[in-house]
Each structure stands twice: as structure tokens, then as C-alpha cells.
Structure to design on (404 residues):
């Protein structure tokens, strides 16, 4: 097997398309002749000698040390994801939130400052609003699309700019190049959560971002089976993240990594299909009188449509909409669904539906929810791969329940 330090792609893969990279990148066979990737279910590794053990622990030589931070199955996942993001390196983690935490712990210290878009996942807000201040790190929340607000919030102590694009749950779009330029003015890193698009539809590093975050739990898996996350960026930056993982242990399971590898093999195909289904459903929902607004960047009247068209190759599978009847209408709509799964997860081949104001963002103060556009009548649908006519029929059940 190749050393874990060999992160470069073979020459025959360097110009390959994403569909090929998702299947072939990172493979390192053991000598047994296996065609599929093996799962290394071992906690530790045997060394050739005491000197070999000392050299591996010190980093003087390559080789596996302990599966908390060196595991061959996890390494294949990391190399494949890095190839898809056109990055030097990636680090697997136990969950998407642990990927965010690892990034913060690697690059922030007491007295530092973070600027974060206000419309991010509720647990991300909780980390930034509650736990980072305990470390002496201050955080300013700003509107995602207001570039002047980002610049005004930054200080000489700002070390990270953080955003999701498209955002969860109202699908706002960030200008990655513009944010990267502002972050550069303050010598801060721009961190972009690429969960909604994945590298199949968007590569933030190519637009100037420094670090990409993934919840592998979502589309990278694709079938709602496993928890996992990843941090992607330069080899130098990822070495810092690895040091945190090595010390503190929010590591990716080898079995989960193997499942994510299977997900990456079909990622490009699935994201195209998710995007196509969501595009059709968004246009259909837009004509419904019960809805005041549909949030989906594939709609030409979406404020971020032109920007999304430039920096994404598709509009993704997540949409949301505001029902005129507020929370009562939203709950009736959701409860009437029989095909869509009522669950907070997304990125599944099965369509999921949720009420963000009382679930994913329910712990946020009402003022924060309102500022982020999360109204009582907002419903989020992560469109799966069922037939579009069946999805429309399930939504119709929701509309019928509202009109009763």
C-alpha cells in the first residue's frame, strides 16, 4: 500500500472529470488484489521495530500509528474528497459539527474574532454564539449578502470568515470571490460550508475560499446511513486540523468512511438528479396561492440566481417556502405528507420535510430566527430522487389539509 504521505493523484487521473474522480481517486490496493476498497477495522498497528515505532510517532517516517488519526480507509475517503474539491488535502471527522469545531480549534485562540453569516445551521450558531465565547473568541453575525457588513464587522483580530452557500434553510447565496477578497484584506481565512452543493456542483476553493466544510452525513453519503464530516484545504492548514484530531479525537470511523466512499461514487449523478427534481418542484410550488415565497436559487426571481448561475453548476436539491397561514399551516402541511419523511436530515435519496422554526433552528431566539428569514410558516424540503409527480401529489395533500 502507498504511504499515507503520498497525496498526489496519479498522472492518469489528474485531468479526469468529477464522475471519474468520485470512483477512482484515492484507491490504494493492499496486494490482495481487491477491487473494492477494504475496511481497516483496527485500532492500532504493528511496527517493524522499536526504532520504526519511534520514527512513526515522531513523524520522521510515514506509516500508520493509531486509527484516531491514521487509518487507510479514512485516508482513501480523504484523498478522494480532496480530489473532487481540487484541494491539496482533506481531514475526515466524526460529524459535520466536529468538522466545524476542529477548524475553530485549529485556527482560533483567546482574543480572536470570527465574522459569520447569520443564516447558518442552528447548531453552528450555537457553537459560535455559546461555546466560542467561553474560549475568549468573539463572533459577529452579519447578513450573508451584505458585503459592506462583512467588511465593517471585521477587525485586526478577525481570523475566520464563515458562511454557508447556499444557506440553510432559505437558500441565500454568498459571493465567494468577494468574501475571499474582504477576508484577504484582514489576513483572515474564508471558510465555506459546501454541504448543500457538494463539489459536484460547487468548488469554493476555486473561487478563493481557504477552507471547505462538509457534513458527510448529507449528500456525500446520500442515503442517510452514517454520521461524518470533513475539512478540506491546503496541506499546511489540514496539518493543523489533523493535529487537533490526533489530540482530541473527533475522528471518522473506518466503516463510516467506507460508506462515504460508496456515496462519492454516485455523487455527481445524484446531485444532477436532486437538482433536476428540486428545480421542477420549485417552479410548481411558485404558482401555488397558499405560498407567499419560494426560496430556491434556481428560480430567476431569486436574489441570488445570477450569482448561483456563475459559481455553481447546478442549483441543488434543497428548497424552502413560506406558507401564508404561518405555523399552523406549516404543521398541517407537514403532517399531511405521507411520502416525504418528517426528519431534520437532508441529502437523502428519500425526500425529507421539516419545520425549521421549531426544529433545526428552534433553539435560536426569535429575533435571530426572524433576522435569518426563518418565519413561522417556513417549510424546508430536501428533494430526493422519487418521481416528481409523486412529490407533487404529496405536496398537494399538504395544500388540501390547509384548505380544510
Amino acid at each position: 500500500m502507498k504511504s499515507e504521505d503520498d497525496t498526489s493523484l496519479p498522472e492518469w487521473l489528474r485531468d479526469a472529470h468529477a464522475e471519474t474522480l468520485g470512483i477512482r481517486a484515492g484507491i490504494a490496493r493492499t496486494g490482495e488484489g481487491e477491487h473494492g476498497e477494504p475496511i481497516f477495522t483496527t485500532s492500532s498497528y504493528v511496527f517493524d521495530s522499536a526504532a520504526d515505532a519511534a520514527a512513526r510517532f515522531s513523524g520522521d517516517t510515514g506509516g500508520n500509528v493509531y486509527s484516531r488519526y491514521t487509518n487507510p480507509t479514512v485516508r482513501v475517503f480523504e484523498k478522494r474528497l480532496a480530489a473532487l474539491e481540487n484541494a491539496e488535502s482533506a481531514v475526515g471527522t466524526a460529524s459535520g459539527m466536529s468538522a466545524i469545531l476542529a477548524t475553530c480549534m485549529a485556527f482560533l485562540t483567546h482574543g480572536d474574532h470570527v465574522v459569520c453569516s447569520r443564516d447558518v445551521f442552528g447548531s453552528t450558531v450555537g457553537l459560535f454564539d455559546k461555546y466560542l465565547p467561553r474560549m475568549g473568541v468573539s463572533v459577529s453575525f452579519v447578513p450573508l449578502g451584505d458585503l459592506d457588513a462583512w467588511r465593517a464587522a471585521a477587525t485586526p483580530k478577525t481570523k475566520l470568515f464563515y458562511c454557508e452557500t447556499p444557506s440553510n434553510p432559505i437558500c441565500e447565496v454568498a459571493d465567494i470571490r468577494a468574501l475571499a477578497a474582504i477576508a484577504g484584506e484582514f489576513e483572515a481565512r474564508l471558510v465555506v460550508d459546501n454541504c448543500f452543493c457538494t463539489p459536484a456542483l460547487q468548488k469554493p476553493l476555486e473561487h478563493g475560499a481557504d477552507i471547505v466544510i462538509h457534513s458527510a452525513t448529507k449528500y456525500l453519503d446520500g442515503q442517510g446511513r452514517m454520521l461524518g464530516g470533513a475539512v478540506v484545504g491546503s496541506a499546511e492548514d489540514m496539518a493543523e486540523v489533523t493535529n487537533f484530531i490526533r489530540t482530541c479525537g473527533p475522528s471518522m470511523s473506518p466503516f463510516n468512511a467506507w460508506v462515504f466512499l460508496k456515496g462519492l461514487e454516485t455523487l455527481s449523478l445524484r446531485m444532477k438528479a436532486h437538482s433536476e427534481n428540486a428545480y421542477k418542484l420549485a417552479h410548481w410550488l411558485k404558482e401555488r396561492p397558499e405560498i407567499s415565497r419560494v426560496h430556491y436559487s434556481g428560480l430567476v426571481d431569486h436574489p441570488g440566481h445570477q450569482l448561483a448561475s456563475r459559481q455553481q453548476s447546478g442549483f441543488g436539491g434543497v428548497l424552502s417556502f413560506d406558507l401564508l397561514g404561518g405555523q399552523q399551516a406549516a404543521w398541517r402541511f407537514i403532517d399531511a405528507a405521507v411520502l416525504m419523511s418528517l426528519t431534520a436530515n437532508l441529502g437523502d435519496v428519500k425526500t425529507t420535510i421539516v419545520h425549521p422554526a421549531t426544529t433545526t433552528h428552534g433553539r435560536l431566539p426569535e429575533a435571530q430566527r426572524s433576522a435569518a428569514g426563518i418565519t413561522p410558516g417556513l417549510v424546508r424540503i430536501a428533494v430526493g430522487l422519487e418521481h416528481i409527480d409523486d412529490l407533487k401529489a404529496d405536496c398537494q395533500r399538504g395544500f388540501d389539509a390547509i384548505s380544510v
About this structure: The radius of gyration is 21 Å.
